[in-house]
Amino acid sequence: KTPVFLFAGExxxxxxxxxxxxxxxxxxxxxxxxxxxDILAVPAGLPLLRSQTLKALLRVHxxxxxxxxxxxxxGEAGLTGILxxxxxxxxxxxxxxxxxxGAAGFxxxxxxxxxxxxxxxxxxxxxxxxxxxxxxxEDLGRAAGLLRxxxxxxxxxxxVIFLDPASAWVDWAAAIGPRTVVYPSVVVEGPSRVGADSRxxxxxxIMNSQLGARVKVLSSTVMEDTxxxxxxxxxxxxxxxxxxxxxxxxxVGNFVEMxxxxxxxxxxxxxxxYLGDSQVEGDVNVGAGTITCNYxxxxxxPTHIGAGAFIGSGTExxxxxxxxxxxxxxxxxxxxxxxxxxxxxxxxxxxVEKPGWVLERVRERKxxxxx
Length: 371
Prior knowledge:
Layout: E1 4-7, H1 13-26, H2 28-31, E2 38-43, H3 51-63, E3 66-72, E4 79-86, H4 87-94, H5 104-115, E5 119-124, H6 137-157, E6 161-162, E7 169-170, E8 175-176, E9 181-182, E10 187-189, E11 193-194, E12 199-200, E13 205-207, E14 210-211, E15 216-217, E16 222-224, E17 226-228, E18 233-234, E19 239-240, E20 244-246, E21 251-254, E22 257-259, E23 262-263, E24 268-271, E25 274-276, E26 278-280, E27 285-286, E28 291-293, E29 303-305, E30 310-311, E31 316-318, E32 321-323, E33 328-329, E34 334-335, E35 344-345, H7 357-370
Parallel strand pairs: 1-2, 3-5, 6-9, 7-10, 8-11, 9-12, 10-13, 11-14, 12-15, 13-16, 14-17, 15-18, 16-19, 17-20, 18-21, 19-22, 20-23, 21-24, 22-25, 23-26, 24-27, 26-29, 27-30, 28-31, 29-32, 30-33, 31-34, 33-35
Antiparallel strand pairs: 2-4, 3-4
């Protein structure tokens, strides 16, 4: 293995080149601990640089028995600031050359090496995009585009299907399983994982999350620090905040938000609901418009829903509260107390109907108008 000296070679191209020599001189005391070794010096401001380019440089350096080899960008690009050197040959001759000489310091070193009978070589980078500098916002956008192309191409070779690779952004640290279909305008950030045979629909944003196999994420769903187990379906327009787990076979539908919640196997929350700080067991049905009232203005409180429970539409669960296994909550209820297993809870005002009220009201208005 070859030691790599990575230094802060940022800024404009000329400054980066000039900074290589002073950085190398300053680090000599550390690098001399690797006697008679080939050492790579690499400026940090080259995000597109790949290991295969560095390996190619080392092969040429070794095959030509050079004491010092510079990597050039090809054409008018000139030197890149990347070089390979043999420590036993180069470091003794560095002494006496002022770091302030910048790039001219290498000229002095090259002359000393040549005078000592050592070889100095040049190697043209086989992939010029590897050494493209990032000096401004425009360069950064170009570099990001090239990294996206590399990442998506790598995943496609492993069996991932991109319907529009030019619009899908997958973080370098992310992984996607084979036969998964990634639709246009998908963003996968951080060390996220997506299992095999899944479907990620348009405008989905995945951040630091783990998705199992055969998962379907419908359009415009956003998740962060979330786990979707195997065979789950979520979206469209769902939001999963940190510490949320959707267990195997569960379904979460449109305009549902969850935070710090475990949503049990095969449970369903299909429409317009919020579950926060909740523990939901398996086979639970959460009706449309259900919310957990988990914050009282001072502290967060938990909600627990037992297996097989049915939560009617428009229910408010005022935490802390527990709903027993198999219990039913009538639609429109505001639940403030625990509900026993198998029970029915109704917490709403009794309906009152006044026959003929509308007609009577119209008559009263007409009388007032005539008066």
